[in-house]
Fold each of these.
Amino acid sequence: MKTTKKIIINIHGAGPKHYRFLEDGSGDWQSSLPSVLGNEFKVIAPQMPSPRNPTFEEWKILLDKYLAKINSEVIFVGHSLGASFLLKYLSQEKILQKVIGLFLVAMPFNKIDGFEVPNDLSQFSSIKNINLYHSMDDVEVPYAHALMYKDRLNANLKSYTAQGHFFKRSEFQDIANDIKAIYLKNGFEISQIE
């Protein structure tokens, strides 16, 4: 029996404090996501252009190129500005792929010029699996932002007390388990669930 890997597109954050891949482990949970998820998943993690001075249009062009090569359903993961980018992108672009999950970490609410998310998010009601992850001690993006998105997206919110902006996590098992749960509840077998 031929098995098709489940596609995850993982969009990193940006800004002057763009800490991905620093020696202290900042942002490493995104680079470790493929190994945490396992072989049933293909994680695509594009290096978005100009992370210290991002523009929505440059990021959009790159994501368009990746999506043009995918002809199956997709799950999106985004951190910080990457999460805001995904919401704006999906709210204004018509994509061919069915989006079966959004996993958004420490997402700012209409805060970044050019990446503002529309007020009306009703078009996301067709996505049954929207999960937010936010720490109450996040000094980059206040926890209140997660509460605003939770209501507007009718999303599940997982709250943390000491994760900051999720820069210093080497792994993020909660996201992996929540992604796998989408498939498990639909009768697919997924190995490596912890």
Note: The beta strands are 6-11, 41-44, 74-79, 99-105, 130-135, 156-160.
Amino acid sequence: MKGLIHICCANCLIYPLKVLREEGWETTGFFYNPNIHPYQEYVRRKETIETYTRRAGLKMIYRDEYDLEEFLRSVVYREHERCRHCYLCRLEAAAKMARKGKFDAFTTTLLYSKHQNHSLIKEIGESLAKQFSVPFYYEDFRKWWQEGIHESKAMGLYRQQYCGCIYSEKERYCGKKK
């Protein structure tokens, strides 16, 4: 199966890539993350992905657009819905790329993180699959969470401390509002 995997960061790619390859996927990575703030963080995550994917022998497609203003315009005054928008914009870009590239399915490394809303990711992915006529592959990659952390540390990969957006960075330092 020829599959496209949206990649949020290198650490979250390790085990999903391993699983997909074991399942026989001919996998291509797709990087598009306009939500990441600040710009230095965006660059560091992209560079870490470049380093890891070269090591892993993964073909990549980069939509290297740092469109922070569009992301912020989409979530301002709707901060409680920011994750929905964030998932939607990235998964929609992946679905469009999957259709354009004639991939058999698309998925995302967001499904690896214990910090993401899996039911919402799955709902959005399945909706986009219908809209763009490319199946969304859902697998709960969280069962390999600890192994992925151990492996990324052993490789010396940069490990970010927050999801990526300015709001999650604030939560890192100030905590979540009750």
Note: The domain at 2-174 is CATH 3.40.50.620 (Rossmann fold).
Amino acid sequence: MCQLLKVARSSYYAFSKLETKEPSQRQLENQILLEKIKIIFEKNKGRYGSPRIHKTLLQQGDRCSLGRVKRLMRAAGLYAVSAKKYKAKQEKSEITETRNLLLNEDNRATAINQVWHSDITYVPTDEGWLYLAGNMDSFSKRIVGYAMQDTMQTDLVIQALRSAVNRRKPAKGLIHHSDSKNIGAGYSWVS
């Protein structure tokens, strides 16, 4: 019959399989693999993509390629949900009202402990970020107080200021200037 109709035998057998609708061995394996993929995907709250699921399947002893896992996940509509990146939030605290002084010719330091400047910086380390707050004497250009923490909070700036006051014991009339958001942008005040 194949010779008479000029049809290849492989085409005839492929067509006959379509009529019976029996899934192939590969399709059965894919269904079993997809069930395992869904279990891993749901267990990890939809956060695992195909590379992680592939790695987990290999650890469980299921041998398959990454491409196969990708294809099955795409066909099933399984897409990993990406987590939002961590964004540091500023600590909200009350800022005491102070008199803002402009640092101009009249307020230029002529001796130590008249004007201090304050700022914060951060340094990358092997353990994460290290936050450093410091106070510098405007006249001598020396660091008069500092503090370090692994988080950037208002307490860090206060510790640095306390450190400077304890070391230098300034007289009344000190002008402390900071452009730090933790203290108040561009504020100066007199002790």
Note: Residues 105-190 form a domain with the Nucleotidyltransferase; domain 5 fold (CATH 3.30.420.10).
